[in-house]
């Protein structure tokens, strides 16, 4: 699961990724985004990553 938003404390958008690759085109070029990643499988959810900032 990849979560993102425009604030490091609020990532209110999310997509589930099946596999090991994802490509999306719904980001604004001149904005900063903050992401977290949480692994999951048939046994449940893993630990949420630290916040990653991308500009």
Task: Provide keyphrases for this structure.
single chain; 55 residues; mainly beta; four-stranded antiparallel beta sheet; two-stranded antiparallel sheet; 0% helix
Strand/helix succession:
EEEEEE
Q: Count the E strands.
A: 6
Strand content: 25-35%
Structural class: mainly beta
Ends distance: 20 Å
Gyration radius (Cα, Å) is 12 Å
Determine the mean pLDDT. 91
Largest sheet: 4 strands, antiparallel
- The total count of helices amounts to 0
Relative helix content: under 10%
Given the C-alpha coordinates, what overall shape results?
globular
Biggest sheet: strand arrangement: 2-1-3-6
Weakly predicted, low-confidence segments: none
Write up this protein:
The chain is mainly β. 0% of the residues lie in helices and 35% in strands. It has strands at residues 2-5, 13-15, 33-37, 40-41, 44-45, 52-54. The strands form two sheets. The protein has a four-stranded antiparallel sheet, with no helix packed on it. Strands 4-5 form a two-stranded antiparallel ribbon. A hairpin with a 2-residue loop joins strand 4 (40-41) and strand 5 (44-45). It is globular and about 40 Å long. The mean pLDDT is 91.
Give the secondary structure arrangement, pairings included:
Elements: E1 2-5, E2 13-15, E3 33-37, E4 40-41, E5 44-45, E6 52-54
Antiparallel strand pairs: 1-2, 1-3, 3-6, 4-5
């Amino acid at each position: 699961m990849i979560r993102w938003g425009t604030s490091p404390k609020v990532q209110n958008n999310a997509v589930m990724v099946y596999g090991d690759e994802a490509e999306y085109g719904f980001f604004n070029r001149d904005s900063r985004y903050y992401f977290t990643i949480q692994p999951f499988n048939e046994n449940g959810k893993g630990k949420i990553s630290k916040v990653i900032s991308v500009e």
